[in-house]
Amino acid sequence: MVDSRAASRYVKSLLGLAVEKNVLESVHSDMLLFAKVCDENRAFELMLRNPIIKHDKKHEILQKLFAGKVNAMTLAIFGILTRKNREPLLPGIAKGFHAAYNIYNGIGRAFIITATPLDNLLRTEFENIGKQLSAQEKIELTEKVDREMIGGFVLNVGDRQIDASIKNKLRTLKVKFSDNPYIKEF
Fold first, then answer.
1. How many Å apart are CA 15 and CA 11, to the nearest integer?
2. CA-CA distance, 48 to 33, in Å (whole number)?
């Protein structure tokens, strides 16, 4: 398990340094790229967590993969973390940086599950609902299609959930019909 306390400290430091050096957007895109590489390539993430592989070898791999593709400050952070034997924290730092970036820029997060893919009109409507629920000026909407839902949607914004799916309505009806007030239960 990743030490989230240590990762969050690195995230705060990296965010502060990126803001100070005016490279926040560049570092954010670098961290998104790194998180994408970790998500798409499980072997890469396992290599970072593997204690048998030497830290200088991990540093060399990171340099070969990301040199010329990311900001110099991001490469320096990779170097610092590998020197301090903290490279297993890198995937958590990359994901945590995205969340910290959103908070810093006032971007809310919303997650929607629908039975069919959203068109642009519906997407903007759900973004507006997300803006109202989160009280943020911008919203980052993540979509997921679930064919078993039959119809409707489930929208999560922060700790709120709007479940307007047919699947949920059928489940509610099933519970109501299973309770028969005319039969005594002992």
1. 6
2. 16
Residues spanned by the domain of 153: 107-178
Among 151, 112, 149, 106, CA closest to 130: 112
Q: How many CB atoms lie within 10 A of CB 20?
A: 9
Domain count, the chain: 2
Are 26 and 70 in the same domain?
A: yes
Per-residue pLDDT of the chain (186 residues; tens, 9 = 90+): 346 888 999 999 999 999 999 999 999 999 999 999 999 999 999 999 999 999 999 999 999 999 999 999 999 999 999 999 999 999 999 999 999 999 999 999 999 999 899 999 999 999 999 999 888 889 999 999 998 888 889 999 988 999 988 888 888 888 888 887 777 776
pTM for this structure?
Answer: 0.77
| Cβ–Cβ under 8 Å, residues 103 and 150 | no
**Nearest Cα to Cα of residue 48 among 57, 67, 40, 64:** 57
Q: Are 97 and 25 in contact (CB under 8 A)?
A: no
Rounded CA gap, 37 and 51, in Å?
Answer: 20
Name which of 49, 168, 58, 76 is nearest 113 in CA terms. Answer: 168
Helical pair 4-20 and 24-40, crossing angle rounded to 10 deg: 140
